Amino acid sequence: MLKEHDQFVRKLVIIADCIVIGAAFLLTYILGYRAPHLYYLNSQFMPKLPPIQEYAWMLIIVIPVWITCLSYFKMYKTVREKKFFNILLTVFEASLLSILIFSAIAFLFSLSILSRTFVITLFLCVLFALLIEKSCILVLLHYIRRRGYNYRTILIVGSGERAKNFAQMLEMHPHWGLKVIGFIDEVDKIGLRIGNKKVMGSFKDLTTILDEYAVSEVVFILPRKWLPELENYIKICEKVGVKATIAVDFFNTSIARPIITELNHVPLLTLDTTPVDEFQLFAKRVMDITISLTALIIFSPIFLIYSMALKITSPGPVFFKQQRCGLYGKVFTLYKFRTMIVNAEKMLDKIKDLNESDGPIFHSRNDPRVTSIGRILRKTSLDELPQLINVIKGDMSIIGPRPPLPEEVKEYERWQRRRMSLRPGIVCTWQVTERFQPDFKKWMQMDMDYIDNWSLGLDTKIIMKIFPAIVKGFMHWQEKSKKVA
Length: 485
Description:
Layout: H1 2-34, H2 53-56, H3 59-72, H4 84-108, H5 116-146, E1 152-157, H6 161-172, E2 178-185, E3 193-194, E4 197-202, H7 206-212, E5 217-220, H8 227-240, E6 243-246, E7 257-263, E8 266-272, H9 278-298, H10 300-313, E9 319-325, E10 331-337, H11 372-379, H12 387-393, E11 397-399, H13 406-410, E12 425-427, H14 429-433, H15 440-452, H16 456-484
């Protein structure tokens, strides 16, 4: 019954969203029809919008697209435990994707009656209409649940510390509409009080308790040793149509986050240490490609000028190619402008005493293999520009940990290999925060912090610091050159 109730409520919400989206579309038309100056710069020479009939048919595109995107972002799953901000963010992400899809459809089918201003106004109208609707629904649900209505009754199987913390969490958030009626555990714990509830019976009393009490959901919060016994108790819940939920936080991981997925109807528990927000990862990839293509066009004169200068001052190829380890250790060919003499790698054994790094990497600010023009390029980081090709190919990202050499990876400690769990980047954190390359351990830790806290917002902050870091590096090089002179 509870499942059917959830489906009924979900259908009501979808119907409400359809009405709101349709009303927002109508409002967009009215704004253009009544106030054409909003859509046209020179409204005295422009006719009013065509009749509503010429726009109404677009609702068969607009509404399904918006509902599909809202569903894709899991808007129609239960909102009991969702935070208000997360719901608003979901509405914004879904609306942004919807208007992009609608714009693409309008472009493909040459819908000339749609102006760019109309599309932007439609996006804003639908966005604000949905935000107002969701806010009203949340306020109403919070009010109803605080009055003791529209709640689920929860029976917790287990009475350990994890079970206590779970019950306290539900009690602290009454607006979730989840009310604990009691606990069940081993016989010797019957009658034990946990907060304002008590252990109502033992495991073998589960059937009786489900018959006597109106239980919406049974939550199993047990130690791992009880896993073999769970199947019998889950079958009891299944037989009477009560939802059974298992808390899977019994693995004491400090970094990996548990994710429940499904593959061909096989439920899987995944413990992942990398970002799992598919939309943000997709947006990161789109941003990488967009920035790379734009940068290649803008910096194409530098490619030409440096190629000519390098050919004149140093014989050999323009590009330096090197095998690097990418995502999950997959080897790829990295491209850079050549800044060293030809066959510089063969000289590495002779200059190892110049190494300033304390890890398995070689780094020296006075590397004798670097050419004069190559030193200028390195100080401005412009030698990394060809890696934009690697980004377009999918080997790298704009922002991410720097890709290591296979020889360096062989010397990594086990925890350091985790830096390859995210696609490597042209720019990493230390390059925009440290004046000089930090020691190896700090470098590794900065990469781990980036992986653990990754978001599009963090990437954007790093991108904003790239140009100031390049300018600072170039000015420092000039000051150093003057002192030497």
